[in-house]
Each structure stands twice: as structure tokens, then as C-alpha cells.
Amino acid sequence: MRPVLPEPLRPLNRLARNLRWSWHPETRELFESVDPEGWRESGGDPVRLLGAVPLSRLADLAEDRSFLRRLTAAADDLHDYLTGPRWYQGRAAAEDRAGPIPVESVPTASSGAPVPSDASVPTVSPGAPVPSVPPAPSGLPTAIAYFSPEFGITAALPQYSGGLGILAGDHLKAASDLGVPLMGVGLLYRHGYFRQSLSRDGWQQEHYPVLDPDELPLTQLCEADGRPVRIPLTLPGGRPLHARVWQAQVGRVPLLLLDSDVEENGHGEREVTDRLYGGGSEHRLLQEMLLGIGGVRALRAYCRLTGHPEPEVFHTNEGHAGFQGLERIRELIADGADFDTAHEAVRAGTVFTTHTPVPAGIDRFDRELVARHFGDDAELPGIEVERILALGMETYPGGEPNLFNMAVMGLRLAQRANGVSTLHGRVSREMFAGLWPGFDPEEVPITSVTNGVHAPTWTAPEVTRLGARQFGHLPDAELWELRRTLRKRLVAEVRQRLYASWRQRGAGTAELGWIDGVLDPDVLTIGFARRVPSYKRLTLMLRDQDRLMELLLHPERPVQIVVAGKAHPADDGGKRLVQELVRFADDPRVRHRLVFLPDYGMGMAQNLYPGCDVWLNNPLRPLEACGTSGMKAALNGCLNLSVLDGWWDEWYEPDFGWAIPTADGDAIDETRRDDLEAAALYDLLEQRVAPRFYDRGLDGHPGRWIAMVRRTLTTLGPKVLAGRMVREYVERLYAPAARSHRALNLDAAAELATWKSRIRAAWPDVAVDHVEAHLTPPAPGGAAELGSTLSLRVRVRLGALDPADVEVQAVAGRVDDTDHITDATHVPLKPTAGPDLEGSRLYEAPLALNRTGPFGYTIRILPTHPLLSHPAEPGLIAMPSETASEAAGVLMR
Fold first, then answer.
1. pLDDT value of position 126
2. Are 737 and 415 in contact (CB under 8 A)?
């Protein structure tokens, strides 16, 4: 039963159904004023609140002029937010006037260019025409579909497990703030992710509460006649799988969530969307088929029913949603295209983001399992199963040839791909280099866009009200008092949550009096909260428990630590780590200084980040792809203490916190590495972190600490914003993908597919036969002088190919200790003769020697075509044999 609001209060329904309230303080304050006690009992969920407010209270509010004025203002503000021009519309209008802005001119996360904050959204010049949807002539896409297996928008819609979902939620929110025409696609899990509690002995226990979609901020997508939309899939043997579509409105962004719990399905099919990351391999495969294939079909239905522009760009957030590319291929084949043509057309408009730096973090399925779910009596009939399998099989050196890899399929179906930090991009290029044999990892076509976090969601209201510009001028005393206020609030919440946890563990009221003394608002507070896979090393702090105890109980410079985190339900190793930490935290000697809070989620995090002085992160480097929790803490003036991994490797400065030294190297075993890095952590806390926090000046304030807080807020804060991240996606990935999508219509895609087929067939006959190099002027003593020229003459065989099909390149640069060319430049050679009777062609070019030290070069042949997005895209390269080259390097002086 849904409440029927009095007419004057009807705008409350729209405010409650648009999840912008989750990051808009004024709207939340309005709902809280409806019924303060009900607001607390509902967990800050407007939909639940309105369903529980007494009718007498609603009648009173309908006559309350002051409340109605606030309601009108909030409704008008939402209307303006949803309809007014924002950054994207201004960017589209600017492109229409001046043409596409070169990617090189766009500030990126790692560049020195200033990056605007989320709050400073550029608007269009007065009088400039701004369409609500970018026109086709603009280089920007008219719509972008963003697929993710989880979305962390708000605790009121618990469809997330950790960083991947929170990142997806922040991506949607920032896109909404910027006016980017994004459309989210995911699944609605009837149980969401599990709720965590602890047994008396500290063992993690899982609970799966049933979620009723009618009690969530969702509406069902219906046909024009009111019938709910049904999305069909076909299972092996022709069995049907149906899903309905729920819509959440995330500001300006629609989020479509597919739900298989419908009457038309059998019991097994209804359970496909039962829980997030649950079940065995087949269950996960069905979820990912529904997400990808069903997600595209849901998008088509939504656009048909609402008139929303069809997506030009499809963004796959991790490999779970990779099957969306197959469904789009099927659509084009149904329109008359062949598989290769459809593949090229689909790739052009697809962006793939990988979030894992380890193969174990990728979904991989047995070949036979995947094969059984496709074909004439299953899904995607009309497409050869072998063509589908070929997209995901690990058919490269080091791969498992019988495994279907979802990330590999994501890469093969996307023309553009990225990691989520600069370091993670480098790790990803090395991890997936086998897909581009012959190319150095630096040339693997995977870039990086460093993650960001949505400031309005994660910043404490007190910090938001001050704004980044004011922190540079705020007196030390006021900034220090702000930090103490946030710490004091955290202490109060920790005590409340800890009491509830102990009651769940079976403790009686009489034995919990000690909780009133847990934590101290004037003690250095460290936070550590994350999922609990082994590489994040939850228990590294326990490596030397005596030393940790000394830090916690130091008579002059004590520290206190708040820890939270969930282990995957099937990960007994992770559960043992949780139990080990909980047992230490239960020790009466330290339980007032170190606490573990169960059931980590968005609601807890939004107070945890602001209230901590230091955010701890100690993963095994380089296994943290990004690690955005430290970003959220930084937005609130919390300093980071972290291994140089993920985003911290990119932006660490001594002004922002501390870097935990790492014991890298293959020679060291894991136990020894943990011992060394734990000792380094203790040293930092003991010798640098705690002394700086407690080093008080004559005014009683820690001046040097406050200076670090100020620098974190004013300098680091603007870098970590999701608005910066989404702008980078637009400029560097979405806009180029839209241009490729438009360029690769079916005719162009057919031409490119035919060309690639011809190139692959002829490539075995392509070779570098001979390389000659002459130095001008000659090098006395074997060492050339700076400014000399190396004249290259290269004989190549192209077989059935023409010179227009290839580029012959010299790759030159400084040579390192491993005889590897670094900081390479690529110089094209020009054909000057041929072919001769033996089919050999001559290519020549001068190579300027413009750097000192050991200098090397090599020759290679690459396919080239104007519609290629990257020289490595075809995965073909020809290099000289050892006998083909007379010289491989020059010593410069």
C-alpha cells in the first residue's frame, strides 16, 4: 500500500522518487522535518518515511505555510536541476561552434593542469543556445549506456557490495550533475548483498533480508497500455527466462534494473536475481547473460516507450556485463549484416573498464558451460557458437584454452579500454599483453582514467558548507574545531553501533557499561574499512600485537582505530581474518581503543570517513586497482597513510599524508614481506604520525597537522572528484567512441572487416628482409655525436599487400640495462623502390640522433587503416629476424 498524500504535499512523491535527495542536503532536511523520529527509524529513506507518517501529521503539514514554502522551493530546485543546461550541454554547444576539442588539451588526473571541482560546473555563455540533448553534429554522444553488475546509490537501495558498485553509483551521480546523458543498466537483487553480524566468538554471519521493490524508490517500466514490460531470454532447451524492469531515477540519469522474480518463470529462473555475487558458475553466467543481453533489450524498450535517444556509446563497467556486445551484434545480424561487420560496428561504440589487477578477480567459465547456453535452442540463435566462444577464450600464451574469460571478451568487443588509475593501467597492459602478441606492454591499447568520488555524497555537511575555497583562509582554531566535531560525532556513532553489535552477539545490558568509554574525541583516530580479500591485509596491523598495543595505550600519544569490513560469504579465509581482528578488539585491555564494526555499508561510511584523522590502506602492491575509500576520507580533511598503490601511487605528496614503504621483489616471500611492511607501518605511526598530531603550539593546536589537513582539502580534494573522472571519460573515451560509432556505419564496418580479413590472410608472407644503417657524419671510435643522422634502408616483403595497407616504422630510443628501448619514438619509413623480381620493396628514412647515452632502434611493419583506433588493434606485427639487421644500436655522446 502506498500513501495517498494531500494535494498540497504531492510534490513530496517526486522528491522521494528521485534519488537526488541522497546527495542534496536541503531535500533531506525537508523530509526530516516531516517527522524527525520517523526519519531516524526509516534510516533516512523518504519512501519508507512517507509510508509511515500518520495521516494526522500529513493533514497538519498540508496546512503549514512555512513547510509548503520549503516544499515548493525544493520542488522548483529539482525541476531546475533536471531541465537546466549544465557542463555537458555547454560543451556540446562549444563543439558546435568551434569543432571537437583535441584530447591532448583536456586536463587529466595525472596532468599538471588545474582540475575544476564538482561544485564549479561550467555553464554556457549568456545568450548561447543550449539544447537539452546534444545535437548530432557535436562530437559528443547523444546518449551513453553504462552497464554494471552493482550500483551503490544510497543505503535505501542496497544493490552494491563494495568499491565497484560505489564507483558505479558515483559515476551516475556525477554524470547527472554534469548533464551527461548517461543511462544506467543493472540487476535488481531480491536480497541485495548480505547483511553481516558476528557470533559471540567473532565469526562472520550472513543474513539476506528480502527486499520488496514496492518499498524501494523504484517504478516499474510499463507498456503504453499499463502492462509491465517483459524482457525475454532463452535458456538451454528453449526454456524461457523472463525479467521485468524497474527504474530508479538518479537525478537526471535513469537506472534500469532487471528482476527475474516474476510469475512467468519457474522456481530456478526466479532465483537468477536472488542475490548479488551468489551461487555457482551457472548462476553467475545466467546473471551476466541477463545483465548484458537482457540489459540491451531493456534499454531498447525504455527508449521505445519514453522517446529517449538510443545510446551511441556502451560502457561496460567490468567484464560482468560483456554479453551486451553480443546482443548488439545479434541485432545487426538480424538487420542483414554478417558477423564480422557487426563485430566491427559494435566495437566502435564500446568502452570497457577493467577494475581488477589479478586474473583471479575475473569471472571465467568453463567452455562447455558457455557453449550450452548459446545456439539454436538457447540464446542468440543464428550466431555460430564457435564465434561467440572465440571472443572470450584464453587463446594466447599463458592463458587457459578451455576457459571463457569475461574480461577478455570485454576487451575483444571494445575499441577502447581503460584501467582505473595510472598504475592499474600499467598493470592491465602487462596482464592482457597476450591479446596483442609482439607488442610491448606499453603499446597495449589500454589507457587509464583514475577513479573519483562524488563529493556531495561523501563530504560531511559541515565541510560542504565551508567549501574548498574557504579552507585556505580558515583560521587554524576553526579548522581544528571542525575536525574535533566530526571526530566527536564518529565516537558517538561507534558506541551506538558497538552496543547494538554486542547485543546481537548475545551480551546482556549489565556487561556492556564499558562501551560508554570506547574511543575518545581527542585521541588520534585511524580508520580502516574495506572488503576483506587477502590482498587488502586486514590483519597486517596485528603482525606484532605487543607493538600495536603499545601504540594504542601510549600514555602521551595514544591512537585509536575503527575497523569495518565484510568477507565474501564463500571466503572462509577472509572470515578467519575478521575473527582474528575481532578477538583482538575484544581484549579488555584495548577494546576502548580498537573496535570492529560489523555490516559496513554506505550509511556507516558517511560518518566514518569524516570522523577519522588518518585513513589506513595497506594492500599488497600493486593489487589495489584504485582504492577510493581514501579519496572519500581526503574530501573531509582526513590524511592518508597508505602503501603506494592505486590512486595514492599517483598523487601522494608529503603534504597529504604518508607512504608505507613496501618490500617489493620476487625474491622475498609473503611472510617476510608482511613482517617488513608491518614494521614500517608501526615506525610511521610511532615516529611521524602520532608525534605530529600531538605536537601542539602555544595556542594548543597542532599547527603542522592542520597545515596538512588544509593542503589535503584545497589541493588533493579537487583531484579526487567524480566530476573530474566523468569529464575525462567524456573527452577521452565517450566522445571518440561516438565519432567511431558514426564513422563505422554498416558499409564502413563491412569494408574494415573485409580489409582485416585480407590482412590476416596475407600477414604470414610479410617480413623485414634486410636492414642497413649509415651514420652521417661517420662515428669515430664507434660513438656518434648528438645531432648525427642515421640513414636507414630497409628491404621488406609485403606478399599480397599493398604499401597503403602497412606502415614500416623505425622504433628508436634510449636503451636500458635490459637492452630494452625506453621512451620510444616512431618514425615512418617511405617506400622508394620495388617490388623487385623477388617481391622485395625498399623503404628509407633518416633517423635523427637527438639524445645522449646508449641509443637503439628496430624496424617493424604494422597494418594501417584510417578506421583503426590504435596501431595495435589488429594484433599483427612483423619484426626483423636477427639475420636481417646489420646494426641494432648506437652509443651516443
1. 29
2. yes
